[in-house]
Amino acid sequence: MNELAPPPSRIRNIAELARLAGVSAGTVSRALANSSLVNKETRKKIQKLAREHGFRPNQMAKRLRVQQTKVIGVVVPLGHEQRQHLSDPFFMTILGHLADALTENGYDIMLSRVIPDAEDWLERIADSGMLDGVLLIGQSNQFEAIERVAAWYKPMVVWGSHRPGQVHCTVGVDNRAGGRLAGECLIAAGRKRLAFLADTAAPELSERFLGLCDAAQAAGLPQPLKLGAHLASDIMAEEIASHIERIGNEVDGIAAGSDLIAMHTVRALADRGLQVPDQISVTGFDDLPLAEQTIPRLTTISQSIATGARTMVQMLFERIAGHDTASVEMTPLLVRRDTA
Fold this sequence. Notes:
It is a single chain. This protein is elongated. The chain has 3 domains: 14-57, no CATH class; 71-174 and 305-330, Response regulator (Rossmann fold), CATH 3.40.50.2300; 175-302, Rossmann fold (3-Layer(aba) Sandwich). It has helices at residues 14-21, 25-32, 40-52, 59-65, 89-103, 121-126, 143-150, 175-188, 203-218, 233-250, 259-271, 305-320; strands spanning 71-77, 108-114, 133-137, 156-159, 169-173, 194-197, 225-227, 253-256, 281-283, 300-302, 328-330, 333-335. By secondary structure, it is α/β, with parallel strands linked by helices. Strand 8, helix 11 and strand 9 form a beta-alpha-beta unit.
């Protein structure tokens, strides 16, 4: 009976493969890169030996040698909302679009959910040597930290609001105009006692509240109530439920700071027997895919997330190439459905 031949020993590095092939390490490196500088027969021999012995070049080491990692850091800072998770539908939506745009261009992703625990948290990411660039999803309450790093680290683009004179490059919707659109939609539906439902610690949410106030003032209505609701899913429903009695007595139009808050609000109102939109109108903010799947379907403000994500990636590539880019502020769009 014939015994099976033992499998070839595994090769660990280019030097070992070069000794086995009887050539220099440089020739092996060029052959594995399919360089025409190595004749065809030698290339085929070296590539065959590499396959037989299970050898794959260390791509990360190669990238570092040429000062390029082909890895982009996608970072979600949660200084203002430490209990929020990446499973949040907004994060999942924008992450999907960012990942598609990056991988289509040959880049890998290093994803980080960061609770800022020190003043230099972003410096440590930018100066790690592991990344070609950074995409931040949201400014959280870390505006100053982002500004400080942007002064010396150019390949960074942030999803968020733009302030006059800021250093860091942002892509995002005009949140104040979006808040005003939501208010105008509620007012057009005959609502006169408005409320904003969200925590306003993040600059984007603060701007949305100010926009709602703009709409109320223009219509001669009282200042909208500000009712706190965090974006963390484990406490959001409970916080909204705690406001329902007050809403039922004092409010007939709600501008929620996000689609998820709006969805929980519609559910809490239904549980109390309040009909949307007959008794209370509700708007969201984001236009997530879920917004048109709820019953009733959610009237909301679109941030054009898909367009914004691809714009972020395009601008990051320009900055990696050494070019400067100006911030982009997109126009919000009212998407009228059933809740207002």
